[in-house]
Fold this protein.
Amino acid sequence: MSSAAHSEIDLGVLAGYDGSPAADHALDWAARDAAARRVPLYIVMGVPETGLTHHPPRVEVREHAYALVDRATASVRERFVGLDVERSVRTGDGAEAVLAASERCDTIVMGSRGHGGFAGLLLGSVSLRVCAHTTCPVVVVHTTASEDATGVVVGVGGPEDAPALEFGARHARRLGGGLRAMHSWALPVTGLAPGLMLPSMVDAERSEMISQVVDSIRVFDPELPVDTVVMNGLAGRDLVDASAGSALVVVAAHRKHGPLPMRLGPTTHAVLHHAHCPVAVVPVR
C-alpha cells in the first residue's frame, strides 16, 4: 500500500447534501464510512448567490438550508453516537460548495439525483462536475442500491490505476465480500492482421499484468479475498454488469491535458449513469 494511501485515511468524509432522498442515502453511506474509519464527517450544502433576491428572499432560503442541514446532522449524531459531525452552508451552487470544502476530506459522497431547487444535486450537473474536477475520490450513491450487497469491483486499465485499486481494497474490508480487479480489452476495429496476437495470448499477457498490480494489495492484507478477471469486451458495459449485486464499483479518472480536455472518459460516464450500486471515481495522475 502506498504512503499516499495511508496519509489520506487521516482526513475525513464530506457529504454533499440538499435534503433530497438521494442525498439522505448518500449521507448514510458517508456516515457509515466515517464511523468505520473513525474520521470526521462534514455535511455541506450550497446556496446560490444569484437568483434569490425576490421569491423566496435570500434570508429565508438560507434559513431553510440550515434547517435541513441541522436536521440531517441531528439524525446522524443520533444513529452514530460518538461520530464527529460538522455541518456548513456555503454560498455557491452544490458543486462549488463541495469542491471548496473538499480540501479537508479524503472522500466526497454525493447522491445520484437531487430534487433541484436552490441546492440541486443532480447527476447530470453537480455530481458530474464534482467528479470531473475534484482531486480526491468521489462516491456517487444511487437510491436503488441494495444495502445487503457485498464485494467491491475495481476497473483496472493498467499499473497506473493502482490508486483506484487501493481505494477499493480499503472499502472492501469495510463492506465485506472481497475485492475483484477487472480488466476489459477489445480487438482493434481495423480487423485481424497476420501479426495480431490471438485473444488467448492477449488474455494471458493481461492476466499477468493485473496480477502484478494486485500483488501489493495481497501483501498488505493477505486476509482480504482478492481475485482478478480479464474479459474481452467493453470496460463500461462489463463494469455495469459486474455492479449488479456488488456493494461498490470503482473506476479510475485519468485527467487529460489540452485546451479542451475531457475530464471524464466514456467508461466513467457509462458506469456513473448505469451502475446498480454506488460508484467511486478515483482521480489518477
The radius of gyration is 20 Å.
